[in-house]
Give the backbone structure.
Amino acid sequence: MSDNNSTLLRAVQQLDPQANPDPVDSDALLARVRLAIADAPAEMPDLAPRPVPRTTRRVVVGAAATILLGAAVYTVANPAQPPAYASWTPTPTELTAPVAAERAVECPTVEVMQGPPEDPTDMTDIPLTMNLAEERGDYTFAVSSGVGAEGESAYSVCLIEPDRITAQGEVLPADALTPPAASDVVVLNSSIDWSVSSEEDAITYLVGTAGADVTGIDVNAVAGSFAHASLADGWWAVWFPGDVDLTTDLTVTTSDGTTREVAAVPGSSDDTGDPEDTD
Amino acid sequence: MKATPEERFESLYWTHHRELLAFIRRRTSPNVAEDILAETFVVTWRRIEEVPMEARPWLFGVARNSIRNYLRADGRQQALRIRLEQEPPEAQPDLSVAIASRADLVTAWNLLTDSEQEVIALTAWDDLSNSEAATVLGCTKSAFAVRLFRARRRLLHLLERTGTGSSRSGPRRQAQGSQS
């Protein structure tokens, strides 16, 4: 936390309306609690906190079946700035490691893995290392990943705007980050609506891993627009402004100059969780 | 030897009831705070076997849901507004005081969204760690960290605007404890 932010939180503490709370008769309050327990109806609303969502999803690209590739919609607050992402470009600029590290300094450095159902608060941090960072107009998009102590893997994406940073991530099955075959491409995120609300703008992104021979990936939107993905360190990523329907195929170029269309196919997925940024 | 359910319940009550009551009082009017605390402990008793060993964030989560349940039933909205005329709890010579006048800070605070106020308040007022606050809100720690970062930055931004003395103070909102 920066000095400014530490100072800010200390200042906010001064506003605490309960900084000097009224005295509490704890014994009388306990008696009241016991009375409430005795008088409570048999049926009550479920007021226990929800377990922290954990997502394990994977979509593999490369087989014959075709589906409409629904992409993750990743929301960011962006009030009073229409049109959103005006300077976005379909072709990214790759950033050098020092520049990427500097810009992504506030991005998450861990993805938190929820504990087992019997104790969901027993959470584990999966440390993340940046794999890719790109720039489109005024916006930097970074992808990080990591593997936990017990083999669980995770990725996190981070959108850095001039005045804000937002991030999302997923915990994945243990083998999810295994490098694909040389000319293959894997999409790691799946079709999830990431808590779009009226006050927030969205982006649509895809992130995944690519084989060693893959030199280019293009992604097309149903409406006709397209974008070149960034490729680095065996990872690829692309994003579009707004909630965009993407076509079924990615255009993948390999080092021998071959270009082919590959279709998105759902792989082993566990669609039981919700995206992490829902509330 | 493992504590009996009754012993565990008593231990949870005596360890946490004051901070839970403060948490509830910050978000509701004083005349209902003890009722909501009682409901929180009714839920705790009924689910005593499910209460995790790290009970604090779980209890705050129950209290938060109890508040929302009450406010929903009562047709009110949760608010963490600060009344400008409210006296500061105690004047303290601290670096943080230099960040702005109290009036500027209150104005900026009241311009935050409910969600932005909540993530900052969980940290600054309720003294929850990022991990605990994430459990209370039902999100991951990294998601909470990002939300907190975003809220802090917006507060700083608002503070810079209000601190210039400009008239862009936006709509005044209801004072804490007087939701309608």
